# Entry
Amino acid sequence: MSSLLDLKDLRIEFPTPSGGVAVPVDGVSLSVSRGETLALVGESGSGKSLTALALLRLVPAPGRIHPQSRILLEGTDLMTLDPAALRAVRGGRIGIVFQDASTSLNPTLTIGDQLRETILAHKKLTKPEARERAIALLEETGIPEPGARYGAYPHELSGGLRQRALIAIALAGEPDLLIADEPTTALDVTIQAQILELLDHLRVSRGMAVLLIAHDLGLVAGRADRVAVMYAGQIVEEAATARLFRSPAHPYTRALFRSIPRIDTPVARLAPIGGGVPTPDAWPRACRFHPRCDEVLARCSVEDPPVVPLAPGESVRCWLAVRGVR
Amino acid sequence: MIGSLAELLRRAWAHPSARWGVGILLAFALAAALGPLLLDDPSAMPDVVAGATPPSAGHPFGTDHLNRDILARVVGGARVSLAVAGLAVLLALTLGSAVGLAAGYSGGWVDAALMRVVDAALAIPRLFVLLLLLVVWERIPLGALILFLGTTGWFGTSRLVRGEVLRIRQEPFVAAAIALGASPWRTITRHLLPNAAGPVLVAATLGVGDVILLEAGLSFLGLGIQPPTPSWGGMVLDARPYLSSAPWTALFPGAAIVATVLAVNLLGDALSAALDPRSA
# Structure
């Protein structure tokens, strides 16, 4: 598998009202190979959604991507592209599905209009050809009676169908990478499974890579090839999904697992992680997790923890992983 | 707009209020077109001595203080008042929407500059500018009056549109469209404008009433439509001294103003409902 997307040292800066700089995403590096699913997991406020927006150069003002950051899509640095070239990437090379389909669709346009518009933005087709392709996309995303739904307005569809339509629109430009930013948060549990199933099916049938953003490790199990765990604007652990679930290396990852119910082990009670994610204008010194960590060492609050490689493509940002540190 | 303009109009037409509104406006337009063939010359000066006479078989709406047929004058006034109100509001709406979209979409210094211009423009009284125009023209031609009312009537609209655009720009569907490669032009015309159009159309319909009344006020000051050309506002103001002795002189032009404003409001309601498919 060759590398499709290489994110190198992504740093996003926001000016604070007091004149300082907040850094909600601080030195994130990721790579996504063709055809694989990478899950980016973290709590609200960890910077995962902002990272996704940055891949499309869509960090909301007044935030900015640090000019030294590199977003390489098959070797092309998106940081160097002009607006027209960026538009071709958005939707054409990288598609994105947002959380809530009820607000992510324009209420005044039919599903078909919105699909056709995105198709025509990326493909040189006549309107009837675009219509044909739009209906094929609706069918591909499992929408029953695609011909009839083509003329439907978003409010006329159920939540699950709306999310499918949103996915169809994201696929309109035939992207190589689909970013799914918590695509199932607004849905019922049974529909959630169907949508994730659909994404996986589309990934295989189209040979497309998927960046799945989630706050729920349980959602990721069995669907992602690799998982990157994000905390306070940094990636704290990156591993193959199986290894991560078998032996999580970072105390934060372990704490995440203890906070979700598991069916295979009889646990009396769930263990929540005390406190909340700190805010980007006041990350803790040194290891950002140390105030909430139950395995904290003396040096954790003094020195930045190193990123320790565990295997090819696997690493953990923790002092505990350094041999002989205890 | 929704699919196409034809689609929007078709959806609006499904509302009874649109049919009423269009019906009333068509009736006025028809009367304005056919009136000159069937009725007296509204500007003619008949037997002045007779004064105002109440409605009768010969004069269904009665006559005014100069014994002119009020029916003929209401019909004649329809041409002037509707043309002035319709065209001036259309012009104001276009200018206001363009400036509001530009300001709201661009943000930053473009927004700041445009809105400061609007602030400054709002501080200049319209009548003052009109007096300046009177230096150029002894009597203001109809076209110039429309141009004047249109180009000085868009400031409020631009603020309204800007506000709507700022609100809609925050909606996830706009972010989604941009994230999937929509160009600025597409974003503005397909995503921002149709979703901002509802309140703007309602404001425009209110603007029609405003312009008719403003034109009346201008005529009263001798700055607008000059007598003996009839306009509804001018007729109401002419009738003011005779409200108790000859109430019909104010009643019929007043009713024409009310009917027109009502018709445009009904149309505006139907249009804004048609723009929002959720209300269908």
